[in-house]
Amino acid sequence: MSIDNSIPYKIYLTEDEMPAAWYNVRADMKVKPAPLLNPGTGAPMTFEELRGVFCDELVRQELDNDTAFIPIPQAIRDFYKMYRPSPLVRAYCLEEKLDTPAKIYYKFEGNNTSGSHKLNSAIAQAYYAKQQGLRGVTTETGAGQWGTALSMACSYLGLDCKVYMVKVSYEQKPFRREVMRTYGASVTPSPSETTNIGRAILKEHPGTTGSLGCAISEAVEAAVSNPGYRYVLGSVLNQVLLHQSVIGLETKAALDKYGIKPDVIIGCAGGGSNLGGLISPFMGEKLRGEADYRIIAVEPASCPSFTRGKFAYDFCDTGKVCPLAKMYTLGSGFIPSANHAGGLRYHGMSSILSQLYHDGYLEAVSVEQTKVFEAAEYFARVEGILPAPESSHAIRAAIDEALKCRETGKEETIVFGLTGTGYFDMVAYEKFHNGEMSDYIPTDEDLARSLASLPQIPGQD
Ligand SMILES: *Cc1c(COP(=O)(O)O)cnc(C)c1O
Questions:
Q1: pLDDT band at residue 172, thresholds of 50, 70 and 90?
Q2: What are the DSSP calls for 291-349, one per residue?
Q3: Count of the separate structural domains present in the chain
């Protein structure tokens, strides 16, 4: 491997160089993301309506389309120091192995026990809940990273944490569940008999292994029916993208230190929080006309919200208890095929990213899971880190871009988000190694069926 002496293998910031404020990209968007709507009246959700479900300060952040910089409270900055700043790594080994003239960097968010970027928002959300004097929070978790991150944050601050975990993951990922319990959370497989909506779903679909949409409905019900509790969500919402801007701000500060300007920025997209956070300061420059970047969202071909979904108001959950959000969606009843192992399985996408995509500020590609695991294994062998399947979508796209540079000879600078590690995903890796993994791509008929359930909103065709 040959290291360019002018740029270190890992670019670290000092603690003093960490961002003191989150950046709210909505402030620079000419067309703001569409507001959440009350499913009953069709009117935009008000502060008063939302505060029954979410913490007050988080509702303020959710509704704030104008403040560009929101100071990060000192207690959160101090917590961030336990595992941040995260390194920006120059993938020298990967470049050499690919024999590409491209320069590849990745921002690694897996250096904490939750194994992902989700802790960045979990600590913020738990902090505001604590500040409001609440007893605890409820949430859903799919693969388990968000539940783990929230459990860590709650235990640090002395809050109770109730997690509804998608049943199939609860059964297949017992270790994730035990990590959450190590941090004192109570973990209930969803759908469960503990909520009205859970009982209704079980009655209608006996034996169902659950979905994120079901677990969200249960967690919301648990929050509104337990005094002193609020519901928190680990992705999709504007407030989550705001907190995750810490990823992009650190990335930009690290690149600026060495005068590096990226050409392409790549992130995997489930609900859009890591991608939204990673790109935020770059997107801000793009929106203000100060710089231009290619920005690529990478999603699974089995759950292709951007590339094959519809930009429309939709329900955020299966039980239809949440507000409606305007987003690229596959329909709230969409459940990816059972053989899909790579995460990123939510039916919708952040309203902010959806609007930016609609307005042409970002591109999207979808990738098949066997190709994703090929990239994951390649990356593990070359760069040493065992990546999460979710993150490996971004690795796949970054490798593909670097290979294009090998063809064209272009010396592009590629930055991608490496959101986490895959130690709890070894069942999926095992399937891949045994040749038992297949690719499932929903048919147009499958998508038409789930999109048929979109709510009727005046002005939406
Ligand atoms: C949750 C998660 C994602 C996807 O969520 P986004 O909100 O789209 O960022 C990606 N990678 C890892 C490791 C995750 O835990």
A1: confident
A2: ---EEEEEEETTS-HHHHSEEEEEESSTT--SPEEEEEES-TT----TT--SS---SS-
A3: 2
